[in-house]
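Why should sequence recovery work at all? Because a backbone constrains its sequence more than one might expect. Tight turns favour small or flexible residues, buried strands favour hydrophobic ones, and helices have their own preferences. The token representation captures these environments compactly. In the example below, the structure is given first.
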């Protein structure tokens, strides 16, 4: 984490903003599953030692911070874009769309956005895009943890629907085990059919593997 992880938040507050949201996404690279974004507004007196970019934390630490953030955050919004939409508009646009959905789901609404990456999102709210923001901004790091844990839990649900692909372990990423499963079983309905590693098998497996459909998440499913 940056030696001054609240620098961007403090600069925004000096400009008169008070509800500053950090936004990040998880799941741009996998061959399967949705892209999930989170937007997080932290209180001004927020304190949670060792909070960092989700990729630099163990799964156990991420789960601990996930719970703590839901207890302490002013507001958390989640945005999810499914694989079919990813295939339709491409992964970059889907990632930005998921971020916009996450911001729209914040209550109270933010008055300033700190967005991980180099691209702004479509929003009337003033914003700043920050390269490697998940390592440089506290509220973006918080969003990275919420997005990552939320997506991992969703992939655990899909693992029950499609156990042959090992989504509980690989989270949809293109591990050798996952690629071998695609070669053996074809693709399922949450695979990203435009991604290399899947698209090669679409025509090849068209007759033998139609792609099973998964029902919508049950109402009882809890993130």
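From this structural description, the recovered sequence reads:
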């Amino acid at each position: 984490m940056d030696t001054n992880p609240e620098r961007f938040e403090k600069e925004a507050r000096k400009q008169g903003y008070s509800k500053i949201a950090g936004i990040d996404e998880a799941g741009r690279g996998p061959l399967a599953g949705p892209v999930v974004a989170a937007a997080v507004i932290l209180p001004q007196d927020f304190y949670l030692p060792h909070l960092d970019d989700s990729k630099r934390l163990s799964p156990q630490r991420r789960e601990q911070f996930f719970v703590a953030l839901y207890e302490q955050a002013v507001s958390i919004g989640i945005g999810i874009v499914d694989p079919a939409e990813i295939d339709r508009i491409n992964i970059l646009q889907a990632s930005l769309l998921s971020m916009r959905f996450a911001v729209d789901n914040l209550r109270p609404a933010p008055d300033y956005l700190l967005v991980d990456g180099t691209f702004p999102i479509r929003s009337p709210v003033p914003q700043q895009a920050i390269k490697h923001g998940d390592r440089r901004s506290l509220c973006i790091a918080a969003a990275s943890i919420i997005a990552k844990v939320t997506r991992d839990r969703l992939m655990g649900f899909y693992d029950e629907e499609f156990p042959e692909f090992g989504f509980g372990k690989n989270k949809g990423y293109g591990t050798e085990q996952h690629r071998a499963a695609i070669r053996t079983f074809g693709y399922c309905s949450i695979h990203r059919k435009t991604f290399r590693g899947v698209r090669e098998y679409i025509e090849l497996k068209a007759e033998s593997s139609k792609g099973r459909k998964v029902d919508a998440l049950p109402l009882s499913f809890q993130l």
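A few observations help interpret the result. The CA atoms of residues 39 and 137 lie 13 Å apart.
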